[in-house]
Amino acid sequence: MKRTKKAAPVEQPRHExxxxxxxxxxxxxxxxxPVVAAPEPWRPVFERCVPVGGLLGIGFAAHPDSGHDLVxxxxxxxxxxxxxxxxxxxxxxxxxxxxxxxxxxxxxLSCPGLGPVSGNRVHIAGLFGGGLHMTTPDGWTLEVVTPxxxxxxxxxxxxGGLPHSGPYGEHWWHLxxxxxxxxxxxxxxxxxxxxxxxxxxxxxxxxxxPASVTAAVL
Length: 218
Fold this sequence. Notes:
Elements: H1 21-32, E1 43-44, E2 50-51, E3 55-62, E4 69-75, E5 78-83, E6 89-93, E7 110-112, E8 121-123, E9 125-126, E10 141-148, E11 151-157, E12 172-178, E13 183-188, E14 194-199, E15 202-207
Antiparallel strand pairs: 1-15, 2-15, 3-4, 3-9, 4-5, 5-6, 7-8, 10-11, 11-12, 13-14, 14-15
């Protein structure tokens, strides 16, 4: 009888270590924190989030005249540019050139600007990678936590971040629960005056600048 080589035994997967009592308490604390409004001086830019089907990523720029933060949105339906103080959609390109339609075509994950920032390129964070500022110079911090995978939660804090020693609603806040769409990107603008959360289906913005005009109905 011909002998056959014996197959190596399949290695059994290692069991993940159970959470410690400290980790369970931290997870339970995050799960128990309800979504609340952002604290002053933050205010929502839109009355509700702006629907953007097939959103791929977002990036920040500055208006050359007003100095307002601008948010560029890249989606399957093209590119859009929002004023992050008034909420106005100030530019739209429904048919960008194929080589510029998504940021992964560029080594620095950027797309050409539009409207008042035409001629510049805007770095885009989202599905293809990249990132936004997660802190501001005056101490605000953003974190993404997932105590109940796969739903991400966005936390804003002023106590240095996890494990959040300060009381909830005074030193840290649960601003956004992505329990209906995939989180694409979250972060502050370089100026630290705008906070953005983008999912695969919508955009939500907060600003620290006062509203000079009523936000446009979109």
